[in-house]
Each structure stands twice: as C-alpha cells, then as structure tokens.
Amino acid sequence: MPPRRPSTSTPTQTPKNPFTLAVTFANSLLTPKIESNPDPLQSIRDSTSLYGFYMQATIGDYRPPFPSASNSSNKDVGIYERTAWLKWMSHKGMSKTEAQKLYVEMVGRLMVGYGVEDGVREDIGV
C-alpha cells in the first residue's frame, strides 16, 4: 500500500458566535450575581430583560398564552413569570438577529454593572 499523503487542507476554526458566548457567560457568571442582588426589583428587571431578548432571539414571534393561575397547572405563577412574558412580548416583530445583538449588548452592560471581569466582555465583543 502506498503511504498516505499528508492533507493539504488546513482545518478551519469555527468563529465564536458572540450570542452563544453571551448566553454561556450570562448563565455561568452573570445569573448568580443578578440573583444575589440585594434589590429584588432590579434583579427581576435584569433577568426578565435578558429572558425577553433571549426568547425573541431563539424563538421569535411565537406567542404562548399569558401566564396566569387560571391557564396553568402551576397555581403559583408569580410576578417573575408574568414580567418575563411581557418582556418577550414587547419585542414582537424584532428580528432574531437584532434580538441577539441586543442580548449581547445587554450582557455586556450587566457585566459592567455587576463587576464581572473585562476579559469576558472582550470575548463577546462588547
């Protein structure tokens, strides 16, 4: 058998997607900071804003019913679920690309506000 020729092609690197990185950083670094915020209203505003952009960026204009105890098996639907739903609905008509861009920008702003290291923000391009 003849020896194999070395490949002349170079492996291509997949560019890092800023939205995917922002989601990863938000889940691992930012969410614990938001949840430990001593101001519960600010915590709800920050996390539901992220949720609204995330849902619009990943699902788009799909409209589930308003979360309430009357249309849910969960009778403890609270202000968080309703606020998160309203944040998502406020982005109706926004493209997924625009929602991804705004999500990344918001993660960058929140990282500054919550004191998450700058190197992470550079990774997502903000």
From TrEMBL:
Transmembrane segments: none annotated. Signal peptide: none annotated. This is ACB domain-containing protein. Residues 19-107 form the ACB domain. It comes from the Eukaryota. One of its GO terms (molecular function) is fatty-acyl-CoA binding.
